[in-house]
Specification:
By secondary structure, the protein is of the alpha+beta class. It is 42% helix and 12% strand. The strands form 3 sheets. A 4-stranded mixed sheet has the order 6-5-7-8. Strand 5 and strand 6 form a beta hairpin. Helix 9 packs across helix 11. It is globular, with a radius of gyration of 40 Å.
C-alpha cells in the first residue's frame, strides 16, 4: 500500500495503481460519424467538455425540464425528451394552495383554468373556494358599474386648464350639457327589450298625484319634444314637426300630440334625433354669446329666460333619467353639487309666484300681511341640506314682497335630492322627510307649491 501523496508531488506512473476513468459527456459512446455538427461532446476543437455533475451525482433535485439527457433533435431510440411542465397536471396540494389567489382573481390564465377544472371534481376545495370568494366580497366595497358623474367634469376641467376652449359652453348651460351626456351614456347599451320597458311618469295636479304609463322610448320622445321649445326659441328646427296648435302649446300638450302622432310605439330610433337636438342646443347657445341668456322661452301659459329654461331642461333630464334607470333596475346618481344647487335655486325663485297662483285658484291660504312691492314681508326659510344645499327665503304673501330673515315665520329643512323629488312630483308633501318649525299653515302652503311645480 502506498502512502498519501503530498500536494505538489508527482504521481508515480505505476501500472499497479488503480485508475478512475474520466466521466464521458453524453454521446461519447457514439461513433464520431454519428455526432451532429457542433455536438457538445466534441467541444470547440473536437475534445470533451468539462464534466458537469448530473442530479444523480449531486443528489440535488432538478426541475423536470432539466433532467433529460437527450436533445430535442436527438434521433429516436436514444432516450425520451422530458415532458413539458404544462402537460403535467398540478397536484391537489398545489391547487389547494392557489385557492386564495383564485378568489382574489390574482391567478394567471393557466392557473385559473387548472383551479376551476379541479373545483368541478373536488368537493372540499369547491366549498373552500366559495368561502374564500365570499370573504373577498366582504373585504371589497361594493361598486356601481356607472362612471363617476364627476369624471366627465374633471376630465373637461383638466383639458380646459391645459388649453382653454375657443368657444366655451356658458356656465348656465353646463348642467344641461352634463345631464344630457349622462342620460345618453345610460342609453348607450340598451337593447330592444330595455327601450320598450314600461315607465310610469308621475306628477302633482290639483294637489293630487297624476300619472301616465309609457316606455323608455316614450320618455326620450317627451324630452325631445319639450327640448324643442327651447330649440325653436333659438331659431332651430324641430326634429319631429307638430301641428300648429300643438307646437304653440305647453309641454304636456306637445308630448300628448307626439305620442298620438306616432303610428306605432316609439322605438330606439328616437335616440338619435334627441341626441342631435341636445348637441345643437349646446352648440347654438355657446356661439350665441352671453346676450342670449335673457331670451324668453315660451312654455305655453308662462315663459322663462333662456338660462332658466336650460336649467329646467337639465332638471327634467336628470329626473326622467332616474325614471328610466328605475324601469331597468339600474342605479343612477344625482347631479354634481354645483349643478344641483342651480336646479334648487331655480325652484326656490319660482316658488313665490307659484304660491300666488295657487292662492288665486283657492288652493292656498289667503295672505296675512300684504306689503308694497319691494318691502320686506312674511318669509319662510328653506334650508336645503347635503350636496348642493344652502338657505333660501321665500316670500309668503306676495311675489313682489322682499323675503327677509328678519320677518321669518317658519323654517323648513330637507335634503337637496328629496326637495328635487318633491318638486318633480315623485314625493308627496306628506311623504317628504321634512324638519318643520313655526307657522304650520305657511309650511304646508310652500310644500304643496313645491309639488305643484311638477308636470308631465
Amino acid at each position: 500500500m502506498t502512502g498519501p501523496v503530498e500536494r505538489g508531488e508527482p504521481v508515480p506512473d505505476d501500472e499497479n495503481t488503480p485508475r478512475i476513468p474520466a466521466p464521458r459527456a453524453a454521446g461519447d459512446d457514439l461513433p464520431d460519424g454519428d455526432r451532429a455538427p457542433g455536438d457538445p461532446a466534441q467541444g470547440e476543437r473536437g475534445g470533451s467538455l468539462p464534466f458537469v455533475p448530473g442530479p444523480r451525482e449531486t443528489g440535488r433535485d432538478v426541475p423536470p425540464e432539466r433532467t433529460g439527457t437527450v436533445r430535442a433533435d436527438a434521433p429516436a431510440g436514444l432516450g425520451s425528451p422530458a415532458v413539458p411542465p404544462s402537460h403535467v397536471p398540478p397536484s391537489h396540494t398545489v391547487l389547494k394552495s392557489l385557492l386564495g389567489a383564485w378568489a382574489l382573481a390574482a391567478c394567471s390564465t393557466e392557473e385559473t383554468d387548472a383551479v376551476e377544472a379541479h373545483l368541478t371534481e373536488c368537493a372540499p376545495c369547491a366549498d373552500e373556494a366559495l368561502r374564500l370568494r365570499d370573504a373577498v366580497g366582504l373585504l371589497q366595497a361594493e361598486r356601481t358599474l356607472d362612471l363617476d358623474p364627476l369624471l366627465r367634469a374633471r376630465v373637461l376641467e383638466n383639458c380646459l386648464g391645459r388649453r382653454p376652449a375657443r368657444i366655451p359652453v356658458p356656465v348656465w348651460a353646463a348642467p344641461y350639457d352634463a345631464e344630457a351626456a349622462r342620460l345618453d351614456a345610460l342609453l348607450n347599451d340598451f337593447g330592444d327589450a330595455e327601450w320598450h320597458a314600461p315607465v310610469r311618469l308621475t306628477w302633482f295636479e290639483d294637489d293630487r298625484r297624476a300619472g301616465r304609463r309609457t316606455t323608455v322610448a316614450g320618455v326620450i320622445g317627451h324630452l325631445m319634444t319639450v327640448d324643442a321649445m327651447v330649440a325653436t326659441a333659438l331659431g332651430l328646427d324641430e326634429p319631429v314637426p307638430l301641428d300648429a296648435g300643438a307646437a304653440a302649446a305647453g309641454p304636456t300638450a306637445r308630448t300628448e300630440a307626439l305620442w298620438r302622432a306616432a303610428q306605432y310605439p316609439l322605438t330606439r330610433t328616437v335616440r338619435e334625433p334627441w341626441r342631435e337636438q341636445s348637441h345643437a342646443l349646446i352648440r347654438t347657445v355657446s356661439f350665441a354669446g352671453g346676450g342670449v341668456a335673457e331670451l324668453d322661452v315660451p312654455y305655453g301659459e308662462f315663459a322663462l329666460p333662456l338660462q332658466d329654461a336650460m336649467l329646467d331642461r337639465a332638471f327634467e333630464c336628470w329626473i326622467h333619467a332616474g325614471d328610466i334607470a328605475d324601469a331597468v333596475d339600474y342605479p343612477y346618481d344625482p347631479p354634481s353639487g354645483a349643478h344641483l344647487h342651480g336646479m334648487i335655486d331655480l325652484a326656490a325663485r319660482i316658488l313665490p309666484a307659484t304660491l300666488a297662483g295657487r292662492r288665486r285658484a283657492g288652493l292656498a291660504s289667503p295672505p296675512r300681511g300684504l306689503v308694497t312691492a319691494g318691502s320686506p314681508g312674511r318669509s319662510l326659510r328653506l334650508e336645503i341640506e347635503g350636496v348642493g344645499g344652502g338657505d333660501w327665503y321665500i316670500a309668503l304673501d306676495s311675489p313682489a314682497a322682499l323675503a327677509s330673515p328678519a320677518h321669518e315665520v317658519a323654517h323648513v329643512a330637507l335634503d337637496g335630492v328629496e326637495f328635487c323629488k318633491l318638486a318633480a312630483g315623485h314625493v308627496s308633501p306628506q311623504e317628504a322627510a321634512v324638519g318643520q318649525l313655526g307657522d304650520r299653515e305657511a309650511i304646508s302652503d310652500v310644500l304643496f307649491a313645491a309639488a305643484s311645480l311638477s308636470r308631465l
